[in-house]
Amino acid sequence: MTTLQRPTSKPGNPCFSSGPCAKRPGWSLDGLKGTPIGRSHRAAIGVKKIQEVIDRSKAILGMPKDYRLALVPASDTGAIEMAMWSLLGPRGVDVLSWEVFGKFWVHDVTKQLKLKDVRTFDVPFGALPDLSKVDTDRDVVFTWNGTTSGVKVPNGDWIKSDRKGLTLCDATSAVFAMDIPWNKLDIVTWSWQKVLGGEAAHGMLALSPRAVERLESYTPPWPMPKIFRITKNGKIFEEPFEAKTINTPSMLCVEDQLDALKWAESIGGLPALLKRSAANLKTVEDWISRTGWAEFLPERADIRSNTAICFKVVDPWFTAKDNESQLKIIKDSEKLLEKEGIAYEVANHRDSPASYRLWGGATVETADIKSCLEWINWAYLSVRSQEQAKAA
C-alpha cells in the first residue's frame, strides 16, 4: 500500500460551507459593538441601521436607483416565494431547473400556485437548460447560480431588453460574486448568509419599476399570507422599502451585515469581491487539472460557479455509476477532514450527485482554498486506500 504524504499547512479558516458561509477575513464579535441591543427595529436607530444596509447594498451592487430594495423575512426562500406569490399569474411562466432549489420553485409554481400555462426546463445536475428556447415575453423564474450543482448562468444575453414578461431571479449565491445585469432582471432575491457571510433568516428583495407596475395592476386570485403582502389598497406597500420591515429582524444580524458591507467597501467594492472569488475558482481549476480522480460537476467551463464550486469523483477504481460507494468515500473523507480541523461541510448537498463542494465566495481566502484542496486529496486517497484494502 502506498504511503500518502500528509500535508503540513492547514487552512487559516476551516469553514467552506455554502451557507452559512465563512465570515469575512478578520471578523470578530467586536464588529457587533454598535448593535442597538433591546431597541425596537422601528425606533429611529433601528430604521436607520436597516436603511444603511439597503443603501450600502444598492451602492456596492450598482443597482439602478429606480429599483426598490427591502429586507424581508425567511431568508432567500421567503424573498423568492413572496415574489412568486405576489407577481405570477397574468402571463405564462417558464421555470428553469438544474439543481435542488430550482426544482423547489418548479414545485411551487406547478403544485402550490397551480398555474396552468407553465413550461418547465429541467435538466440533470451539471447541465444548463437551452436558454435560447426560453421565452422572456412570458414570466421566467430561475436561479442565477445553482448552489447544489455548481452551474451558473453565464450571462443575461438570452433575456430580451424589450421583454413583455418579468424575470424572477433567485440570486442568493451570485450577488456580490458575479456580474449581475440589473437591466435584464425584474425581481432579484438573496440572503445574508451567502456571499458576504452574514447571518441566517434574513432575505433581500429587489424590484424593478416593471415589477412595481405589475404589483399595482394585478391582484392574485389566491389568499395571500400576511408575510407575503407587499401591496396595500392596490399600491405597493412602501414601508418595507423604507426600512420598516414586515416582521421583526435581528438587530444583531443587521449589525453583522453592516460589518460585512463595510469590509466589502474597504477592499474595493464589487470589483474586488469578483476578483477574489474568481481567484478561488482558478485555484480549484488548477488543482483539478493535475488531479487524476476529480472533475468538475458542471459540463462546461463557462457555466462553472465561482461560489459553489462542485467537483465529482472520476476515479477509475469505481464503476461508472457507483454513486453509493463514491458518496461513502466522500462522506468518510469529510469526517476525517473535520476531525483534523481542516475543513467543514465539504460534501455536496444531500440531494446532489456524489460530489465535493467548496464555497469560493470573496470571504474565503485563496490560500485557504489551496491548502484545503491538498488536504482533500490526502483524505480522499487515504479513505480510498482503506476501502481498497477491505475489498482485497
Please tell me the CATH architecture of the largest domain by its name: 3-Layer(aba) Sandwich
Estimate the mean pLDDT confidence: 96
Compressed to H and E, one letter per element, the order equals: HEHEHEEEEEEEHEEHHEEHEH
Radius of gyration: 22 Å
What oligomeric assembly is this protein in? single chain
Q: What is the global morphology?
A: globular
Going across the biggest sheet, name each strand in turn.
1-9-8-7-4-2-3
Task: Give descriptors for this structure.
single chain; 392 residues; alpha/beta; Aspartate Aminotransferase, domain 1; 2 domains; 3-stranded antiparallel sheet; globular
Could you explain the architecture of this structure?
There is one protein chain. The protein folds into two domains: 29-265, Type I PLP-dependent aspartate aminotransferase-like (Major domain) (Aspartate Aminotransferase, domain 2), CATH 3.40.640.10; 269-391, Aspartate Aminotransferase, domain 1 (Alpha-Beta Complex), CATH 3.90.1150. The protein contains eight helices and 14 strands. It has helices at 44-61, 75-87, 100-112, 209-217, 251-266, 269-289, 323-339, 366-391, and strands at 68-73, 93-97, 118-122, 139-143, 145-146, 151-152, 167-170, 187-191, 202-207, 231-232, 235-236, 294-296, 308-313, 355-359. Strands 1-9-8-7-4-2-3 form a seven-stranded mixed β-sheet, with helices on both faces. Strands 12-13-14 form a three-stranded antiparallel β-sheet. Strand 10 and strand 11 (235-236) form a beta hairpin. Helix 5 (251-266) packs across helix 6 (269-289). The chain is globular, with a radius of gyration of 22 Å.
